Amino acid sequence: MKRIAVLTSGGDAAGMNAAIRAVVRTGIHLGLEVMGVQCGYAGLIAGNWRPLSARDVGGILPVGGTMLGSSRCLEFTTEQGPRAAIAQLEQAKIDGLLVIGGNGSQTGAFALSQLGFPVVGVASTIDNDLYGSDITIGVDTALNIALESIDRLRSTATAHHRAFLVEVMGRNCGYLALMSAIAGGAEAVCLPEYEIDPEQLAAELADAYDRGKSHAIVVVAEGASLNATGLMQHFQEHRERLGFDVRATILGHVQRGGNPGAFDRILASRLGAAATEEIASGNHGLLVGLIENQITITPLPDVVANEKSIDPRLYALAQILAK
Ligand code: F6P
């Protein structure tokens, strides 16, 4: 293995730059040439890459986003996409590829690997829905951003005795919402993993006021069966009967912005370095993640075949602590 390439794909996550830096500097340390692919799989198909030196990745460690750019590339999901990418890689004499990204990105990595190209994945998505890593790059920073917003909303909620719906990202996974609810002391949490009855939720909020609370914060996962917009509509229609005012805040992409915290910088540095060591040693077709605080490799077929579920005990905990 002489020359490898690295790309970031799918939704950006704070810490991706730290992972790129780790790949480049570990690669150079191991005697490899490292190419940076622009804009994820779209850049791979187009052969859009350039060599990266240790200095090229200087100063990116504390910066959010990804210096390589990212994309959601539909063409790569076709049969032709991965074949076109491999043709480009082989022509440029690139021997291996590191893919920093989440579920969709690792599905792409698996497709390349099935065609015989050496690929190693680095677990990175704010959704924390990727099998093969207890926690992925970007989750902790996104969680802290949600938390700051919840803390700010609580003071205005208290001032007006209002209920606030705070919608957080996470696609079809409730992890970010659940952890935001526990860390933010929310009165209720709505997750995609559990059915939502707006009347039962309203009763829980009314009960919170009856117990002497001066506000009610509800963290709603964007993938919940009723999101913040749906719940808001229901609560507004029944405003008189419910007896409390509701406002909704959708955090959206704010959660993907900003600089990575210490946890994500360290996690990304460890995973990026470990993935580079794996591919340099000739190990591929796998994802590098963190399980029980140890760097762990999981075969890509297992990664794409399995789903990661949230811990029901944490859901129960959120409800007990909301009292
Ligand atoms: O997968 C990361 C994520 O931010 C999800 O939480 C969200 O549903 C999605 O990406 C948004 O995608 P896009 O940035 O393409 O709108």
UniProtKB/TrEMBL annotation:
Keyword Nucleus applies: no
Domain Phosphofructokinase stretches: 3-277
Residue positions binding substrate: T125, I126, D127, R162, M169, G170, R171, E222, R247, H253, V254, Q255, R256
Subunit structure of this chain's protein: Homotetramer.
Key words, A-Z: Allosteric enzyme, ATP-binding, Cytoplasm, Glycolysis, Kinase, Magnesium, Metal-binding, Nucleotide-binding, Transferase
Any one annotated GO CC term: 6-phosphofructokinase complex
Protein name as catalogued: ATP-dependent 6-phosphofructokinase
InterPro entries per the UniProt record, alphabetical: ATP_PFK (IPR022953), ATP_PFK_prok-type (IPR012003), PFKA_ATP_prok (IPR012828), Phosphofructokinase_CS (IPR015912), Phosphofructokinase_dom (IPR000023), PKF_sf (IPR035966)
Species whose genome carries this gene: Lignipirellula cremea
Activity regulation remarks: Allosterically activated by ADP and other diphosphonucleosides, and allosterically inhibited by phosphoenolpyruvate.
Annotated binding of ADP, by residue: R21, A22, V23, V24, R25, R154, G185, A186, E187, R211, K213, S214, H215
Classification via HAMAP family: Phosphofructokinase_I_B1 (MF_00339)
Keyword Magnesium listed: yes
Gene3D superfamilies xref list: 3.40.50.450, Phosphofructokinase domain (3.40.50.460)
Gene Ontology biological process: canonical glycolysis; fructose 1,6-bisphosphate metabolic process; fructose 6-phosphate metabolic process
